């Protein structure tokens, strides 16, 4: 039980950080509602748990190999650019009264979230560092399960709060949220690409 609680705390705190997927979750919830936001959140939590497991299993050294790190970093930046442009285009569609958001259903939001969250496998390095700092008597399997639950708890909370706020905002606010999220995603893509090419 101790390992699950430690993992839960780690997963919750890591998911709490503002990142590209947090922005995507907020804008998806504002556009399509709670279930879509929960779909995005579930995708985030699944990948967090898988990457935490990879970090715990010692996969981090593989990502230190330059060609592997370069390919994965560039691929991740490309996925974030695609997501950012798609989000900005959604802002234009809202203004024009058009539908067509790719993440409109919970299932499609889950699939997109899986791919976009997985696009930054360099986070395995972060999880490897976190696990090395975690208690040495923690059992890896419950620790990883706790990470997934902690991550899911935070993203579900964020989706719930955003869904409550959704009732108070109109189409204009949704368009603004799409614009901010799209620019944020492009900014994260630029940062990932820069870090990949210059580290």
Describe the structure.
By secondary structure, this protein is mainly alpha-helical. The chain has one domain (2-198). Helix content is 81%, strand content 0%. The protein has eight helices and no strands. It has helices spanning 2-16, 20-32, 34-56, 66-96, 106-118, 123-133, 140-166, 171-198. Helix 2 (20-32) packs across helix 7 (140-166), helix 3 crosses helix 6 (123-133) and helix 4 packs antiparallel against helix 8. The longest helix has 31 residues, at 66-96. The chain starts with a helix and ends with a helix. Residues 95-100 have low confidence and may be disordered.
Number of strands: 0
Mean pLDDT: 81
User: What would the principal axes of the Cα set say about the shape?
Assistant: flat
Please tally the helical runs, counting DSSP H or I stretches of 4 or more residues. Answer: 8
How much β-strand is present in the residues?
under 5%
Radius of gyration: 17 Å
Class by SSE composition = mainly alpha
Largest sheet: none
How far is the first residue's CA from the last residue's CA? Answer: 39 Å
What is the helix/strand order? HHHHHHHH
Helix percentage: over 70%
Low-confidence stretches: 95-100
Summed up, the domain count is: 1
């Amino acid at each position: 039980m101790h390992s699950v609680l430690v993992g839960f705390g780690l997963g919750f705190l890591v998911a709490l950080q503002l990142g590209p997927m947090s922005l995507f979750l907020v804008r998806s919830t504002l556009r399509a509602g709670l279930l879509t936001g929960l779909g995005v959140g579930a995708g985030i939590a699944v990948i967090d748990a898988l990457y935490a497991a990879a970090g715990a299993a010692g996969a981090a050294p593989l990502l230190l190999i330059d060609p592997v790190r370069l390919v994965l970093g560039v691929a991740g930046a490309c996925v974030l650019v695609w997501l950012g442009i798609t989000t900005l285009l959604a802002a234009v569609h809202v203004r024009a009264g058009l539908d067509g958001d790719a993440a409109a259903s919970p299932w499609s939001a889950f699939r997109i979230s899986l791919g976009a969250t997985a696009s930054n496998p360099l986070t395995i390095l972060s999880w490897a560092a976190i696990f090395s700092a975690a208690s040495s008597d923690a059992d890896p399997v419950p620790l990883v399960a706790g990470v997934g639950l902690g991550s899911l708890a935070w993203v579900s909370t964020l989706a719930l709060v955003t869904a409550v706020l959704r009732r108070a905002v109109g189409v204009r606010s949704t368009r603004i949220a799409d614009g901010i999220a799209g620019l944020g995603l492009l900014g994260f893509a630029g940062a990932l690409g820069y870090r990949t090419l210059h580290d």
